[in-house]
Amino acid sequence: MWTYWRDDFAEYGAWSGDDTPVSGVHFHDEHQLTFVISGCRFFRIGGERIHVPAGSCLHIPAGCPHASLSEVQSGTRCLNLYISDLELGAQPHVLTFRPGADTYASAIGTLFHANDAIIPAEPNIARLAKKAGLSREAFTRKFTRQFGIPPHAHSVVTRLNDARRQLRSGAALADVAAACGFCDQTHLARHFFRVFGTTPGAYRKSLGRSQTYER
Fold first, then answer.
1. Model confidence pTM above 0.70
2. Less CB within 10 Å around the terminal CB: N or C of the chain?
3. Which residues contact 16 (CB under 8 A, 6 or more apart)?
């Protein structure tokens, strides 16, 4: 699993092993920098297969949908940094820049000029499609082409990012699951592990240790 910690500069995630930490399509509120120390990583971004060899860094802009692929070299080690404010330097790296939506609601507004739409935690795709003057299927296809992820999946990942923020403050797992629209802790844990490669409890505990160390 991934191990996470945090300081005043960024949040960090480290992983090493012989089995790639495969993730479903997701995005982050922060910019992601993936440093591959040994071995290699492979990602899928916007239909493109990205190879990140040892000694390289992949920059994934905030809001950009991506997934890690099930390809690996033995002994791969990598370090992720999640940074809100980022200016790219001149160090050697793989650079991928793709626009991303700030929020689900702004994505709808950008696509369909529906800025007055009220977007629920679990989006009613039929209602949103009707508001946009499209069939459900056409709405889903257009949204997916524009943002690289279907509207329902976009909503789930948005709620997972919200859960991640709440866990950083030490919130109780049951409270986080309820506040972010998951049925229970198990439902939250299943999606959280699929996207972030660790459980909500392990994520909260690792950040708690890092904050104790900083003091």
1. no
2. C
3. 75, 76, 77, 78
